[in-house]
Design goal:
Length: 165
């Protein structure tokens, strides 16, 4: 447990706060490996962008890609509205996109707020397994990490799950 000394008062956020405020599970499998080795998918050794195209049916244009991130605007333009009469495969693709956007912008956002990372592909690949992970503990860990960076005087923006503050 960490206590953060903010200008307005001390702040302590615990797992129960995450579960109550965000409704995220705090029990289950831990989120592992998505921040380190996402160049290749572990099962089958598929390149990340090839896997991205297999799961979502389209690749972002080269000007929207920066290493392992893509622009949010491209995601929003491409997947803004589910087509009428969409089949199950299309609905699954749109669900994956929506979840990736939530993960990248709301729970595990960076300071830019304009990019989505492909690190979430292993988790959205099997939609039926999404509820088995401890998303709450991962979100809290990410917020702690981001708040710890605030001790640097050069940091002017805060990232993380700011709803908890």
């Amino acid at each position: 447990m960490h206590t953060f000394h903010m200008s307005f008062r001390e702040c302590m956020i615990i797992l129960q706060d995450v579960a109550y405020q965000l409704g995220l599970p705090i029990d289950g499998q831990y989120i592992n490996g998505c921040l380190t080795d996402f160049v290749r998918h572990i099962e089958g050794g598929c390149l990340a962008w090839v896997w991205f195209e297999e799961l979502l049916g389209v690749l972002p244009p080269a000007n929207c890609i920066d290493k392992f991130t893509m622009k949010c605007t491209w995601f929003q333009e491409t997947f803004s509205e589910l087509p009428q009469g969409a089949d199950n495969g299309t609905v699954s693709r749109y669900a994956r996109v929506y979840i990736m956007m939530l993960l990248s912008t709301q729970l595990f956002g960076d300071k830019s707020g304009t990019c989505l990372h492909v690190r979430w592909l292993p988790y959205v690949a099997r939609l039926e397994d999404m509820g088995q992970y401890s998303w709450g503990s991962a979100a809290l860990s990410w917020l702690y990490r981001c708040m710890r960076c605030l001790v640097n005087r050069n940091v002017v923006k805060l990232a993380g799950t700011l709803q908890l503050l």
